Amino acid sequence: MTAEKASNSPGSLKPDRKIVKLYLAAIGANIISLSLGTAIGWLSPFLPLLISHDSPLEHGPVTDIQATWIASLLCIGAFFGTFLFGWSAERFGRKMSLLATALPLVGFWACVAFGSSVELLYTARLLAGLGAAGVFLLVPMYITEIAEDRIRGTLGSFFILFLNIGTLVSFVMGSYLSYHLTAYILCTLPIAYLAVFIQFPETPQYLIRCNRVRDAECSLKYLRGYTSTPDHLEMLRTEMDGLLQMQVTGEKSADGTTEQGGISLSDFASPSARKALLIGLVLVSLNQLSGCFALINYTAQIFADAGSDLDPNMAAIIVGAIQIIGSYGSTIVVDRCQRKHVYIATSFLAAIGLFAMGTHGYLKSQRIDVSAINWIPVASLSFVIFIASVGLLPLTFVILSEILPPKVRSLGGSLCTAFLWTISFLVVKYYPVMVELVGLHGCMWMFSAVCLSAGLFNAIVIPETRGRSIEQIIHAMENDIKS
């Protein structure tokens, strides 16, 4: 029986009391998401400074080519970091690996604060990418493995919410504080995360996989708020039995025999695992090819290139705030509405917004007077970021962590996350090149087509996961159940 079913049994805890520690654990884990958001958002306000004559680097402004490498090296660091943290998650556990993600982010801010050359900025971005790999892989994994079925989507959507809050913090501080002071202040975030998150437990699923059943019971008891009353002990036993049964099922090979030991590619032989991996690879590809990550990195420049009358840094702050509102909206709707409906609707609406922005850019490229509609770039991009933050962006990671079977979740998540960062590198690195080749309008129209494809893919291929246990989701994958 899952935690959701247990919560509906007689004598269960009141929902608000029962889930408070789950919320605290999710918030504690996502402090590192907040820190990563500041590292990602750092580029938008400070890249224009680095290429200007007021550059803080001792050798003067960086070249356009160096600027594209500063932007894209994060993705290269993340690609290699994905496999490092994937291995670490299996070897040392989810909790210890998550704590380790703070170290490269401290290194990033130290390089920015004390470095004075472009080479150190390259190193900083590689370190930020290393931390990003761990955060993107491990935070959704940790949340999925501790959450109850009924609030798994809400807790999972905290990831993008905290990431967006961190991005806005960087936008604001980069606009009003100096280059070095911003780095000094934001370096404290990953350190604070270490102090807070160390008090929370390892996930029960990982502990059971390591045959640490008593530790798993303690972890579950803490996370669910169970006491020593007979009713609570019965609920604890019921949920532990369900986790143990899931572990036994996950260790069975294709021929029905039980396998022990590490994970290998042969574990993807089952239809559900193979299908989940393929869906995951497509989901992360659509997530990045939608252009949202590139738009965040080049927010200030996009508004300037589009001819917006609004100050580029102020426009970025406005977009960052709207992004947070959208992410918060996601935490509200993700467990109240069908995941498929939210994902499909937000994908189609984002496609409309990007198409409108592309049309404005096209009219401008044809030397048509667009002064009366110069509000369109800000309005369209704000709309796209808001809508994508409600569904398209956060649900990618919620769905990915839900559909992967427990035994292959770490390896499958690593493969999907590495593929995400590969696509992200190509998009961020070559976005300026594509703007030169097909214009801003051409890029926006291509992003629009990808968002449309994302909605269609979800409608046709992906099963509904809201309110379902992991066992039910795996069953739906195996039997091609979409609703």
UniProtKB/TrEMBL annotation:
Membrane topology: Multi-pass membrane protein
GO cellular component annotations of the record: plasma membrane
A Pfam family that the UniProt record links to this protein: Sugar_tr
Gene3D superfamilies: MFS general substrate transporter like domains
Subcellular locations according to the entry: Cell membrane
Domain of life per record: Eukaryota
Domain Major facilitator superfamily (MFS) profile residue range list: 21-466
MF terms (GO), sorted A to Z: sugar transmembrane transporter activity
Transmembrane region(s): 22-47, 67-86, 98-116, 122-143, 155-177, 183-200, 276-296, 316-334, 341-363, 375-400, 412-432, 444-462
UniProt KW keywords: Cell membrane, Membrane, Sugar transport, Transmembrane, Transmembrane helix, Transport
PANTHER family: AT22075P-RELATED, PTHR48021
Name under which the protein is recorded: Putative sugar transporter
Organism whose genome encodes this protein: Anopheles darlingi (Mosquito)
Taxonomic lineage from the root: Eukaryota, Metazoa, Ecdysozoa, Arthropoda, Hexapoda
